[in-house]
Amino acid sequence: MTDMEDHRGPLSLSITMASSKGERVSLEEQVAQWFRQWRDPLYRYLRSAGGSPTVAEEVTQESFLRLYCSLREGKTIENPQFWLYRVARNLMVDQSRRLHNLDSPLPESGESAERRFLNAGPDPEQVAMDRERLLRVHEAMQSLTEMQRNCLYLRGEGFLNREIAQILGIGMSSVADALRRGIRRLMKERHE
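Above: the chain's sequence. Below: its structure in token form.
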């Protein structure tokens, strides 16, 4: 048997980590747990950042794969969620450089959102109100800059301004300014 083989087969590696509950879990189990926990929010962030559904899904998977590989190589990652968002953002930047154009910056067009809401429930009045509200939010979000959308989304996911600045590779004053202007713009749109 070689150094790279054990009773589980070639290249099988099981790293044990402490979970948030203090129990010992394998690296694979921990990354799988994080995948279940952060996959959807990361995917939504990538969609709001302009990625098509296919690109957002690929970048999400690639980000988790890189997390696993980095941990497997023994790298210390203090905040895996922050690390994932930073890697995903960088992958999106790389992707946009390669493609030179991104799909719609929002997850759904007004038409698909309207269809989803029309099929959502039995109360047509509530559906119409929800559809109108969603369309107003969609239009308001379209009026924001990409930076404002990214900052607002990440803030909504619970990241601190310092973390947003690191994820996006900008200064904290730029984050604060983008949040302030974005919120002001959304409030203005809401009252028009």
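The chain has a mean pLDDT of 77.
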